[in-house]
Structures are given as C-alpha cells and as structure tokens.
Design goal:
alpha+beta; nine-stranded mixed beta sheet; elongated; 42% helix
Length: 379
Amino acid sequence: MASGPASVVHKHFENLTDPRVDRGCNHSLIEMIFLALTAAICGAQGWADVERFAKCKLDWFRRYVTLQFGVPSHDTFGRVFSRLDTGEFLTAMHAWVDAFAGSLRGRGIAIDGKTLRGSFDAAVGKTALHTITAFACDMRICLRQMAVGEKTNEIPAVPELLKLMELNGATVTLDAMHCQVDTAQAIINAEADYILIVKQNQESLHTNLVDRFIAYGEVDYQVQGLKRHKTVEKSHGRKERREYYFIDAPSDDPVLARWPDIRSIGMVYRCREQGDESHEETMFVISSHPPKVKMLSEHIRGHWSIENSQHWVLDVTFAEDASRIRKGSSPEISAAFRRMALNILQGDTTVKENIRGKRLRAGWSESVLEKIYAGFTGN
C-alpha cells in the first residue's frame, strides 16, 4: 500500500484504467505515475530521464511504494503512457488540483492556448499538440488542460473547458481570439463574470470602442462616470506605465447590446521604456463587471501571468518545446505531468528559490522534495 507522498497519487489515480493485459503488468500503474511525476518535479525531461532518476533514488522511492519488479524501463514508461485514456487521466489529475485549490469564487481565471512544438511527427502525419489551459492567476495553478486539434479550434473548445470547472463567482479573462458572444454567454451561464480583450476580429465592436474613447480623450477623459487608474512599475532597468479607463456600457447601443450581461467598457494604455527605446500599446475591453476600475485592472494584469508564470516557465525551465515525446497519448500525458509538477512547485512555500532552483534542490535533497510534496498534498 502506498504511503507518504505516494498515497495522494494512489488516492486520485486508483480508478484509472490500466491499458495493459494482465500478463504484461509487471509494474504497477500507480507506481509508474508516482515515479514520473516525482521525476518531473526534480528535472526529468523525458521517459529516459524518469528511469535514470528513479534508479538513482530507488531507496527513497521504496519508502513509499514497493517497486516489486524494480524500476520500469524508459520503453515501458513510453509504451504504457502512450496508451492511457487521456480523459480518465486528466479527470483524476483535475480532481487532485480541485482538492488543493478549493473554491474559485473571487479568483481570476485566465484561459489561453499553447502549442507543444516538438510533439509533431511528420512520418505519420501527426501535427503538434495544441492545448488550452485554465489558470488560477493568484495561486499560479493550472486548473484544467484540454487538447485541441490546432490553434483555430480553441474557440469552440473554450465553452467545453468552462463546463469542467465550478466557476461560480470567478472572473474569466480571455484574449481577443475568444471575444465571442457564445463564449461570453457560456461564462454567464456558469454564474461567473468575464473580461474580454477586443481587437479587429470583432470589427464593429472594436470600431465602436475606438470611436468612444477617442471622443473621451478629446475632452481629456473628463466624462461623467468614467473612472481612471494608473500604475507604474520599475524592474531591471525597465519602466512600465499602465493607464486604465472604464465606464458603464451604454444600454442603448445595439452593438454593445449583443453581448450578454455587459456592464462596462474600457481602454488600457501601456507604455514600456527601457533605455532609449519605448513601446506603446492600446487595447480595449468589455466586461460583465461594473466599472470598478482598480478591480478590473488587477484581473487584466493577472491575465498575463499565464504567459509569465506558466507558458514561459514550461518552455524555459521544463524545456517543453524541446520535448520529442510523440507517440499516442504520450504528448498530452507528459504535458499534464509537467503542469502538475509546476503546480506543486508553485504551491510550495518552504523553499525560497525560483522554479529552476526548487527543481534542482528537490532532486538533490530528499528532505526538500518531501517538504515540497507535503505542501501540496496536505501531509
């Protein structure tokens, strides 16, 4: 029976269907999942790394699981994980995340897509895996992962992803691709609120907002009901200034009336300065929230954390784009291991390091690894 950090893996994955016939089951599926996840936490970047790490830490692993037949080979890891039912696996992993995350009420949930560039296989005509994820911005935790055929398939997939979460009272933020009436309605149906970036893909809406805020600007934004908020951040020789402007959405505008429960419209101006260079950007926003400008600005700022705290870390620290895992379900399963490992590392408060440093120290020190696991499992 699994114990310690392996016990929570057993708890959430015990009903996962093993794709092997009985005569081929020398290695426990639950034990293989525990080995693979732990190795991902500690720096492994493929099934061969998982095998290497498990052999080096065999005595530690045997404190918590039996490993009756030793450590599986990298071929065994690859073969078994390529045949797993990804729906079952992700359902089990998401249940574990939910148990840790708790209620999403009041939280900002960013949804965005990412392509695993190394997962294509030209020999069999397999394109690179594209996933969409839901990310709890304040906790920096990936709540949900869903594979889609390609980037353009994200739009119809988002309402399906929303159905997988209890979003009551949360605020969902999405980029301009997902500024869609059906998506906004799906968020409202989930008893949540939305903040949507508006660009030219919604031409009439974008033109409407541009014209309105140009008119507001001509009177220096001295408009009744228009609320403003400014922030300035300085870091590593770079200065970033943001200006937020929000006002109640006019109820008599037919263009705005198409959007369910719309309550405010806004503009965000950003200026980044570094040395002699500067970059300016203006974007427009619609929301089901009233124009509480500071609260809206915090959610908009938080949305970009999915890029900085998840996508960038997965590519740079976990080398996700360099992964050549391609067979069957393996790309999606390995992506899930990386996201779960990152969740566990992000949730840790015992090690005062960046994510790379935490991975190194967890791999070097078994006591550090146990503390990191304990913070996420509640042990």
